[in-house]
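Our working data are protein records whose layout never changes between entries. Getting from the letters to the C-alpha cells is the skill we practise here. To make this concrete, we reproduce a full record directly below:
***
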Amino acid sequence: MKNGEEVRSHAFSGLELELKLEQYASAFIDLYESEEDLISEALSYIQQLPATPQARELAGRLMVKPGQLRNARIRKQIDPFRAYEELRPLSAEALRFIWQHPKAAEPLKVEVFRAQILLESLHNGVKSLDTQEVIKSLTMIESRKIDRKQALRAMRRAAALDPRARFEQRARRKAVLYLTKETGA
C-alpha cells in the first residue's frame, strides 16, 4: 500500500514480455539498417574527397565494420541493440568528418580542390606562389607528397578558375601564380 492506496502490479505475462522484446529487437534492427544506409552514403562521399590519411583510414573502417557487425548479427553472436550501439559512433564520426572537411558542401576533383586552395592563399594576402611553394603547401595540406607536375596542373587550373589569376612559366621547372590588381573603382 502506498499512502493508504493499493499498489498495482505491472507484472507482464511471459507471452507479453516476449512480444515486447521482439518489438524492441525489431526496432533496433530497423535503426541498425538505417545507420548502415547512412554509413554507405557517407562512405561514397568520403571516397570523393582528397585521399588524406584520415579519409583513407575512416573509409577503411566504414567499409569493414558494418559487414563485421552484420555477419555477427546473422550468426546470433551479437544482439541488434549491441550492433546498433557499436555502429552509431562510427556513423557519427563519419558525419563529423564530412562536415568538418573544408570543402564538405561540394565534392570536387582533386585538381580543382588544389586550385581553390592556391586561390584562397592569393586572396588572403600572399603576393605570388612559385612551384616550390605550391608543392610544399599542397603537400602539407594533403599529408602526402605532391610532385611538380601536379603542382603545375593546380596552378594552371587556378588561373583558369579566377580571371584575375595569372600563371607564368618562367623556366622549365619554375612557374609563378599571382593575382593581377583590379583596375578602376
In short: The chain has two domains: 14-100, 110-179. The radius of gyration is 27 Å. Residues 14-100 form one domain.
